[in-house]
Amino acid sequence: MSIKQIVSRDSQALPRADVPGKRHLFNQHNLAAYRQGMEQSLQLVSHRLAAVSQPFSGVLPQELAPAFAGIDLEQPAADQAAVLAELATLYLDDAVYFHHPRYLAHLNCPVLLPSLMAELILSAFNSSLDTWDQSAGGTLIEQKLIDWTLGHLGLGADADGVFTSGGTQSNLMALLLARDSYYARRGHSVQHAGLPADAGRLRILCSSASHFSVQKSAALLGLGYEAVISVPCDARQCMDMAALQAELARCQAAGLLPLAVVATAGTTDFGSIDPLPDIAAQCRQHDIWLHVDAAYGGALLLSPTRRHWLHGIEFADSVTVDYHKSFFQPVSCSAFFARERRHFTHLTWHADYLNPLSAAQEGTPNLVNKSIQTTRRFDALKLWLTLRSMGGAEIGAMFDRVIELAQQGYAMLRAEPWLQFAAAPQLSTLVLRFAPAAALGDDALLDAANVYIRKAIFRSGEAVIAATKLGGRQYLKFTLLNPETTLADLAAVAALIRHHGEAYLAEHAAPCARSA
Ligand SMILES: *Cc1c(COP(=O)(O)O)cnc(C)c1O
């Protein structure tokens, strides 16, 4: 049988009318359905947005879970409207709304409109940024954003980077490259031969306020949590330089091998920025890899007034920047940068089917050569449309605004006798605790009261705040990333803290304290 005969028979055997999923595929035949689905979704989102009056409903898991028990995933709903109506009750009625000005909990930001246009476009065409042959221009868009950020970082002409799923992955990459280049300089390839016998003596130094992904990375890299030395902080929650020097001397005396120092430019809990130039000088002196975790503080790169807070970042061997925090991008959108692009070869694997060595030799840009992911979202498009629509300076001004709000909020609230602050704010985070004079001295009671306050506020849904511990004591945390949050919002949330705190003390304080 000729190919021609087979083709004509086959088109009878598999007529297009019977293609499974035909009505649901994204292609030119379904444009009307595509537009209709998008418009219905858009209506759902905009109606919801208009109706949201507080950041959360306050629902408890055990209240919401039963609604899921009745859903049979093998039985589709009657029509598109029913699908979306169901989603509204299962998800949107009780979602946590980051765009709300009284959402003050974690490092979640309200997102910018151009980034949402990008989400629509990038998921429609579904490019995968691992190789040129799955993305073409998408690869060039990502690379241009990497080069743009590198220009702001000032890492020099040999630097390179790649988009990642988040700061956690970026920090893992930093320590992986630090580890493998450490051994490469000593003539050993970890990539080929695995960890050598002395790897148990490797140490990573970071401040006690650094992100837990440092510990997680150490474990994933075969070094273990014990490889991480937690360097004490000063009262502002910045790495204490005398303590760093002492730890480095202790390593030397004990025959340990300091691999990297992780400096944080904006700690997750306090927004504190480690003294980057001083740490860089220590690293240079001891020939240690310097990683700067700027997951939070990265947008200072664009700040019209506070760029100098990142002074010293240009000395880093590698840097983490989370665009999905202070650049107001939807999750995920993040990147990792290294001063010397050759270090990326420690994680390059040439697969014949995907990114053969011959492609690299021909100069085809395959970003998978720099990534620990293979299939990878075109997250770069969000930042691209954002910059092309509004420019970088306005993002910097937005970040400045929330930093100023934190300073003003601190000035307003520090006078309140029933509040104690952990420290003055540095970026846009306020760490405070309900501590009225009548209960001072009873730390256990105050700890319990502050735990209660956070839960009670979450249950009411009127605001969402976070919590953390400092020196063993329970604190509350406001992370400000919404430029539309006002001082009045902060005052209102403080009033909630006082209200719930006093209610708790009225219930639980010892009688003598109550009458005081
Ligand atoms: C948020 C954060 C991370 C982790 O980033 P993800 O994007 O959540 O993975 C790492 N370091 C710091 C300082 C952070 O604030």
TrEMBL record:
InterPro entries: PyrdxlP-dep_de-COase, PyrdxlP-dep_Trfase, PyrdxlP-dep_Trfase_major, PyrdxlP-dep_Trfase_small
Keyword Hydrolase: no
Membrane spanning residue stretches: none
Coiled coil ranges: none
Cofactor(s), names only, from the UniProt record: pyridoxal 5'-phosphate
Presence of keyword Calcium: no
Keyword vocabulary terms for this entry: Decarboxylase, Lyase, Pyridoxal phosphate
Domain of life from the UniProt record: Bacteria
PANTHER family: CYSTEINE SULFINIC ACID DECARBOXYLASE, GLUTAMATE DECARBOXYLASE-RELATED
Family membership noted in the UniProt record: Belongs to the group II decarboxylase family.
Protein name, entry field: Pyridoxal phosphate-dependent decarboxylase family protein
Species of provenance: Vogesella facilis
